[in-house]
Design a protein that fits this description.
This protein is an alpha+beta fold. It is built from 4 helices and 9 strands, in the order βββαββαββααββ. It has helices spanning about 25-35, 55-75, 120-125, 130-140, and strands at about 5, 15, 20-25, 45, 50-55, 80-90, 90-100, 145-150, 155-165. A 5-stranded mixed sheet has the order 4-6-7-9-8, with helices on one face. It has a two-stranded antiparallel ribbon with strand order 1-2. The radius of gyration is 16 Å and the shape is globular. Keywords: Kinase, Phosphoprotein, Transferase, Two-component regulatory system. GO terms for molecular function: phosphoprotein phosphatase activity; phosphorelay sensor kinase activity.
Length: about 170
């Protein structure tokens, strides 16, 4: 796993030294879900009791919070909950976030992890700059993980993330 997170948007020569350590992913996931479920349950969390993960807890928390925020935002007209599932199986942490929102066009999916990319439907919401998913992809990459997206317009989006457990 890389030891530094650098980005062309930081000052010249700028990088952030990662503080990698073992942490309880389950606690981080619950912490990320909690603000969304304050008044009414928007996110259903299905997770193993204790998943120990090695990496940057701060970056993983940012990753999960951003993906959940997007799922809730783009599901605002749906009566169904956003679902987050996480399980440790065969040395792999499998994370799935599924919403029942507007979905993403098949034409847009290859570009959604590019900085500043916003689909036509996202532009009509007038929020964000198109950086969230590119940052999420970078966080997954520096943790040597994989992220994939499947979506059906009008039915929702599913994001899957895989990390090796050390």
């Amino acid at each position: 796993m890389g030891g530094q997170f650098s980005c062309k948007y930081l000052p010249p020569g700028g990088s952030i030294e990662l503080q990698n350590h073992k942490f309880n992913f389950t606690k981080i996931a619950k912490k990320c879900v909690s603000p969304f479920n304050k008044d009414v349950e928007l996110i259903e969390l299905v997770i193993d009791d204790e998943i120990i993960f090695y990496g940057s807890s701060l970056l993983i928390e940012s990753l999960i919070t951003n993906l959940l925020s997007n799922a809730v935002k783009y599901s605002s007209n749906s009566e169904k909950h956003v679902l987050m599932m996480a399980e440790a199986k065969d040395g792999i942490l499998n994370i799935t976030i599924r919403d029942h929102g507007a979905g993403i066009s098949g034409e847009d999916i290859p570009y959604i992890f590019e900085p500043f990319y916003r689909s036509d439907s996202a532009r009509t919401r007038n929020t964000g700059f198109g950086l969230g998913l590119s940052i999420c992809k970078k966080i997954v990459d520096i943790h040597n993980g994989e992220i994939s997206v499947s979506s059906t317009e009008g039915a929702g989006t599913e994001i899957k993330i895989y990390f090796k457990l050390n």
